[in-house]
Inverse folding.
């Protein structure tokens, strides 16, 4: 029943889209890790309701060439890198819209003791007690660094901090590369091989914003704009929340 209710909500939201939305298209969305879970969910719902086929791919390397080749229809990134793509002419400026907020979370390897992180003081104690911690260098990594600075631990934690490369922090955590992993909650919850501890406590928890825009070289710009309208609509909210993130308009 829940699936039918979701489909009905999506279909209702798409009633207001331009007539061109009725023409099926093959869309390619390129995204960073932070928006991958929700965009996969949204792409499936959009496809079922419209007949369009939406493929969501993880960004790899320099997007500029893919945008020039016309092999990408939409791009989702954090505001700063997406803004740079707009500036470079790869993404249409007027098409960009925010659609998701994801807070920071903490996880441990499956079966390991879960530390108390319910308050800033207990979170600080957990960071100090951990033999090693790991996080990425993207938006979540930047915001985790700010939280650590707020706690006055930047220099103290340097020696036991591991910065991850490709792939989510949970991949490294599950292998035992470090004891405590930090990243966006929506990438950490429900992942095999790790146990989610909980969100970083307020006011240290700074959410990462994900925006989406239409690629200048898209071969199906009308359908791409319809997808942007859908992911920013009220009908998309429960689908985004299903992936442990929040719709941008709810803040």
């Amino acid at each position: 029943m829940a699936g039918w209710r979701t489909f009905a909500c999506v279909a209702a939201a798409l009633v207001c889209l331009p007539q061109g939305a009725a023409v099926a298209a093959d869309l390619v969305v390129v995204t960073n890790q932070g928006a991958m879970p929700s965009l996969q969910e949204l792409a499936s719902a959009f496809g079922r309701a419209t007949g369009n086929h939406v493929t969501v791919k993880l960004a790899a390397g320099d997007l500029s060439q893919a945008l020039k080749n016309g092999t990408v229809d939409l791009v989702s990134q954090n505001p700063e890198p997406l803004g740079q793509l707009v500036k470079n002419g790869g993404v249409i400026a007027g098409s960009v819209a925010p659609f998701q907020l994801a807070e920071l979370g903490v996880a441990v390897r499956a079966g390991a003791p879960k530390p108390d992180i319910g308050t800033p003081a207990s979170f600080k104690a957990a960071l100090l007690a951990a033999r090693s911690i790991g996080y990425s260098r993207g938006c979540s990594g930047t915001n985790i660094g700010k939280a650590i600075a707020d706690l006055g631990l930047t220099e103290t934690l340097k020696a036991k901090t591991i910065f991850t490369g490709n792939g989510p922090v949970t991949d490294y955590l599950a292998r035992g590369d470090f004891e405590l992993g930090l990243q966006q909650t929506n990438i950490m919850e429900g992942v095999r091989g790790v146990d989610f501890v909980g969100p970083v406590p307020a006011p240290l928890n700074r959410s990462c914003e994900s925006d989406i825009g239409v690629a200048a070289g898209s071969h199906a710009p009308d359908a791409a704009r319809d997808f942007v309208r859908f992911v920013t609509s009220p009908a998309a909210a429960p689908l985004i929340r299903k992936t442990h993130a929040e719709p941008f308009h709810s803040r």
Notes: Residues 36-50 form the longest helix (15 residues). The chain has a mean pLDDT of 90. The radius of gyration is 19 Å. The first strand starts at residue 26 and ends at 31.
